[in-house]
Amino acid sequence: MSMQQKEIFLKHLNEMNHYKQALELMTWDRHTSIPNDGLQDRLEIVGFFTEKLHQLQTSDKMVNCFEQFLSSGDSILQQAAQVCKTTYEQKTNIPKEEYKAYAMLCSESEAVWHQAKQEDNFKLFEPFLEKIVSYKQRFADYVGYESHIYDALLQEHEPGLEVKEIDEVFADLRPMLIDLLQRIKNSEAVVDANLLRVPFAIEKQKSMSLALLERIGYKLNKGRMDTSAHPYTFGINPNDVRISTYYDENDFTRSVFSAMHEGGHGLYEQNFGTDIQHTLLAEASSMGIHESQSLLWESFISKNKLFWESNRDVLKAYAPQEIQKLDLETFYRSLHQVSPSPIRLEADEVSYPLHIMIRYELEKDLISGKIKVSSLPEAWREKSAAYLGVTPSNDTEGVLQDIHWSSGDFGYFPSYALGYIYAAQLYESIDGALNMEQIYRDQNLHLVKEWLKEHIYQYGKRKTPLQLLKDTTGKGLQTDAYKTFLQDKYKGIYHL
Amino acid sequence: MSMQQKEIFLKHLNEMNHYKQALELMTWDRHTSIPNDGLQDRLEIVGFFTEKLHQLQTSDKMVNCFEQFLSSGDSILQQAAQVCKTTYEQKTNIPKEEYKAYAMLCSESEAVWHQAKQEDNFKLFEPFLEKIVSYKQRFADYVGYESHIYDALLQEHEPGLEVKEIDEVFADLRPMLIDLLQRIKNSEAVVDANLLRVPFAIEKQKSMSLALLERIGYKLNKGRMDTSAHPYTFGINPNDVRISTYYDENDFTRSVFSAMHEGGHGLYEQNFGTDIQHTLLAEASSMGIHESQSLLWESFISKNKLFWESNRDVLKAYAPQEIQKLDLETFYRSLHQVSPSPIRLEADEVSYPLHIMIRYELEKDLISGKIKVSSLPEAWREKSAAYLGVTPSNDTEGVLQDIHWSSGDFGYFPSYALGYIYAAQLYESIDGALNMEQIYRDQNLHLVKEWLKEHIYQYGKRKTPLQLLKDTTGKGLQTDAYKTFLQDKYKGIYHL
């Protein structure tokens, strides 16, 4: 490739990058800062820039660029070309007019879902969901797949993974989770989350989260923490990665563990390699890998007993007396009360993956035509009873609980569960490579960050999820580490 | 004009508008939110979007559009075409390469100015300023002018006003201001700003400002108030107009009157007519008119004694005891201590216009070649002594105090003084049209906002400054109202 061709390609990549950064800043602003009446104009401008980006992603110039660099020998440019090609195909394999009609349907459908949920009236939402499912089926056909139609939808979020692998790991996990849940239910151990639900000034919760974020290596010169209705990470570029959390004055665990969770996402985004900045490779390998990074810091590290032993000084500096007077063991156990709820967003660590399975199985069967939309509410209740041991009292608490299907989001829920599995495998490797006890004791968690930077963060999209796993753990997707983690942890907490 | 041509033009206007909104959001973000290390990437993206906007502003399509609509009969489109034409000429009359060289010089020069100011070393800055002045002279020649070379630079900020008019009003004001300052100096009246300089919690200052902003009609559903190093108004669009202020815990007057000042700018931007939204006409008529709107609310209304009588409840709700115990007269007088300083940014209401005159006269003479850059420091000291009665003790306090010349900003300082004159004329008209005493008493200041909306705000760029004055006051630019305002006010305060 000539220097000139390379420059043209890099310039084109950078141009797309500029639009992406502007759009991400607007997303951050919409979640944290925009005045109410500004929303309508903002939607217009976001639409305009999205269209501009789309033009670049699907331009002849783009095709020309990626075709030239797909086998260029320069590994970064080659991988960037591959990302461009994938994006190009995603954007062009669906006829434009059809996609537009679908997008309009989704925006109408979201409003209908809101109403249906409010009125507990699934029938209202049913015809919309039917249409969405049929669009998704056609889109999957346009994209193409080899063994299962749902694979086509999975690729956008978890490239390289297919239904048969996910079915396999979920089939392996499901009985173990159901059994663990049952044993916890039967346990007479007292684990009381209410001990932590005491008034805790929001400003102090904020300072506490910031202090802990600093300990894990999240940099405030390259980021900030705001408040928004839902916790979120906004990666504008690696030097500007903003996270948000939310506050409940009577439950500091919400804000602090949200901050740790988003901090985990934030660490990933702050530490993409400098060699891939300004290309489209400075993005997470997949949604599941992104989630593994947040869960690693939230569930595996900041909910570890040693973490709180090591950060007792932070608790001392900010927490109210009622919390400070709890001994470490009680504090730790209180963080881990398990009580299955029909609502995914209220789920504990043990029930959560089961919620994901319910949704995954149903949406897979919807897309493959195995079940009909009309039988969803009943199927949801059955699975909820079978997996969680709770039956939603109505559809608002059941099949209507989440917005995702109404906006056409199919195929990414499995990533949430995959995130736990990846995280467990990675934590096992970290534990083997580093002396974690020592690291907690010496407040050296930034060493974990450095390890992750070396093995995960720096590569961005240069490695697929399975490549990352193989290169860091020597294994493929395996549930062992995750099962051991959950069983050991809750065995201790619930005296099983 | 065919419907199709109209649509093309409106689409083109809207497209420019989208880039402007994105850039304004990035400016707001840079002043209030961006993490430190994010600045460099941000500059790149701002440069990219500025270039995109520039391409639209100077495209053949643009020329084609405005030429078709300059005499279209549809007054809004005709005026939008005129704005496009003016922008086109501003952007194209200077050869691109020359402008680029000049922009690079300015960015280098700003850094040198910082160093020169820090080291009190004008000689360091001198060669840069010489080059900038010579660029500005050439640019003025490219733009063209009739009577005075400085007129060419004035047009960008104060369209329709020329040196001869400004010289005339300044010549009229100068002796009156110098005389007033002298009489205040000789007065034995006690006016002590220190009475207001007591600890005042920043959160309470903020609440107080927000309460007062609400009273003047600034809408928080279309805006927000943030903190930034310098107070600022960010008009993204009329439904999203953000202001910022700054806080001094020991001097609430800084934050509150900054908020009122920016609130005045904000009211203007929130109330452009809906018929000009999405065109380029939804901008201030001129910089001086924009400033008149902030000064009207800051200096004429929120520093009025009746304003504080009427808003005593706000003071009661937020101010510390030391301030609440002051009687209204003392409180009001303390807001108006006059003590000339060599520094413009510390100036009181009476000295401020004299600072503007010093700079205006010097920059006018620089551009016309009447004085040389090398003689600036001496000329500055002389004028400062003659007008303000204070001599800066060094160049850091004198000619080097402001950044503006180092960034090539010539021709807009007069707008600050014109803002006062416009504001005085407008306040006189309002006082004639509305019963101001009653309005203060009934907390009905939103009626003033409505009057301004009807006579000023809604028109945006559809009327020039002189047109606005003529249509609302029946007069041209006149100093009478301003002189009367200052003389009457300070006669009372200083017992002259």
UniProtKB/TrEMBL annotation, chains A, B:
<feature type="binding site">
    <location>
        <position position="261"/>
    </location>
    <ligand>
        <name>Zn(2+)</name>
    </ligand>
</feature>
<comment type="function">
    <text>Broad specificity carboxypetidase that releases amino acids sequentially from the C-terminus, including neutral, aromatic, polar and basic residues.</text>
</comment>
<dbReference type="Pfam" id="PF02074">
    <property type="entry name" value="Peptidase_M32"/>
</dbReference>
<keyword id="KW-0862">Zinc</keyword>
<dbReference type="GO" id="GO:0046872">
    <property type="term" value="F:metal ion binding"/>
</dbReference>
<dbReference type="InterPro" id="IPR001333">
    <property type="entry name" value="Peptidase_M32_Taq"/>
</dbReference>
<keyword id="KW-0479">Metal-binding</keyword>
<feature type="binding site">
    <location>
        <position position="265"/>
    </location>
    <ligand>
        <name>Zn(2+)</name>
    </ligand>
</feature>
<protein>
    <recommendedName>
        <fullName>Metal-dependent carboxypeptidase</fullName>
        <ecNumber>3.4.17.19</ecNumber>
    </recommendedName>
</protein>
<dbReference type="GO" id="GO:0006508">
    <property type="term" value="P:proteolysis"/>
</dbReference>
<keyword id="KW-0645">Protease</keyword>
<keyword id="KW-0482">Metalloprotease</keyword>
<feature type="active site" description="Proton donor/acceptor">
    <location>
        <position position="262"/>
    </location>
</feature>
<comment type="similarity">
    <text>Belongs to the peptidase M32 family.</text>
</comment>
<keyword id="KW-0378">Hydrolase</keyword>
<feature type="binding site">
    <location>
        <position position="291"/>
    </location>
    <ligand>
        <name>Zn(2+)</name>
    </ligand>
</feature>
<keyword id="KW-0121">Carboxypeptidase</keyword>
<dbReference type="GO" id="GO:0004181">
    <property type="term" value="F:metallocarboxypeptidase activity"/>
</dbReference>
